[in-house]
Please model this.
Amino acid sequence: MRVLQAITRMIVGGAQINTLDLCRYVDRQQFETTLLTGPDLGPEGDLLSVAGVTDLPVVLIPKLGREIRPARDAAAYLDIRAHLRRHPYDLVHTHVSKAGLLVRHAARRRRIPAIIHTAHGWQWTLARSERMKRFIIACERWAARFTDRIIVVAEGDREKGLREGVGRPEQYVVIESAICLDDFDPTRVSGSVTRRELEIPAEARVAGTVGRFSHPKEPEMMLRAAGRILEAREDFHFIYVGDGPQREAVLSGLGSLRDHPRLHLVGLRHDVPRWVAAMDVFLLSSSSEGLPRVVVEAMALEKPVISTPAGSVPELVIEGRTGCLVPFGNDEALAEAALALLDDEPRAGRFGREARRGVVTRFDRESMVRRTEALYADVLAEKSVR
Model:
């Protein structure tokens, strides 16, 4: 089966890692996979380079970009159609909104037998205006009409899509965006070396996060909470892993906190497990999410999680069992919840162990890939019957 995986850009991000996993780990005896993407990257880095991918056929569409630019988008669409004309596929699997819309429509025009789309969280939740939100919803409704299956990474996203009239219930399939559990096994990954590098004493308590410096992640809220945590106790540290388009703007507004000796702004890192392993409590301040992989990764490493109820986070973070949920935009509540767990090591440990038990049965990469392969086979079998 000839499969095209399509995504707008291949930065180091959750949707991109999911897409790359489907390219690399499907059964190559059954599936011949090509990746289609655009050139736009950013401070997050190029995932294909970071992952050392050399054996995956990649089609680069020069005009395919994240921002809405009608002339450039039209040119990208024509390039996509030209590629599909030259290279017939049995199935097209798109990811996120821009590539999802352009590639699905081009695949429909070229009569590709099967079209599948994964919504890694719905893009309209990030819209800055009601007009833009309604426009994105209208586009998704339109594209759903010629999509065979819509994969969502959490039950909450299925409910959101149906509530806005995107697709029909029978089109939806929930397949969680999973991780390689061996990479986030607390018996294999230690944070002690990381702590020594940062000169954090072994007995110190550490809170931290991993996330882009961009609006949906609310880095300002996170850093205000970090300031409260560091002010509360002299033996507490905070690790912030990440980069992004708003980094300098956010950091310039920190004042003296930016140079705080116990605030460790380590930037973009590609060895995430050892940084999360160095934390005692993991924090997330997002205003919008799908189902964030970084929360799954932290839980797999037995870290209790304190988060806003963004997207499908409440499906993972169970109050009083695996962590705590705090209101959106409330850095004081985020800091207070973190301080309570940092001060109660036995309770934090119980939450962390329960967190790992909750993710190991649901978020195994091998299971995710096999379920996706089965979906491909089912959809193609339906098409052959028709």
Observations:
- The CA atoms of residues 276 and 298 lie 6 Å apart.
- The chain has two domains: 2-178+364-385, 181-360.
